[in-house]
Amino acid sequence: MIVCICNNVSERKIRQAVDGGMTSMPQLRDCLSVGTCCGKCHPHAKQVLRECVADIKQKTCAQEQPLVFHCNALAA
Fold first, then answer.
1. Of all helices (H) and strands (E), which one includes residue 59?
2. What is the C-alpha to C-alpha distance for residues 40 and 51, in angstroms, rounded to an integer?
3. Which stretches make up the BFD-like [2Fe-2S]-binding domain (predicted)?
4. Chain-centroid distance, C-alpha 34
């Protein structure tokens, strides 16, 4: 779905940018020029950005291994 008609920015492009490490609207503006023309897309772009960042955080947390201490390791 197109988020920014002025600069032809889709949700997929925003997701790819977030996958590439972007986490803020200023970064998206600099990279994709989203929200730099008429500005009507800014709220939707910000919402998509937040959803993408939340998805990445959730995936990262799901992949983390729980921290386990072994009693024998502390005694040594």
1. helix 42-63
2. 19
3. 2-51
4. 15
SS3 69: coil
The closest of 56, 16, 55, 13 to 34, measured between CA atoms, is 13
Nearest one of 48, 44, 42 to 18, comparing CA atoms: 48
Residue 17 sits at φ, ψ, to 5 deg, of: -65, -40
Q: Where are the domains of the chain?
A: 2-62
pLDDT confidence of residue 60: 81
The DSSP H or E segment spanning 29 is: helix 25-32
Q: What is the mean pLDDT of the chain?
A: 89
For residue range 2-18, list pLDDT tens digits in order. Answer: 999 999 999 999 999 99
CATH of domain 2-62: 1.10.10.1100
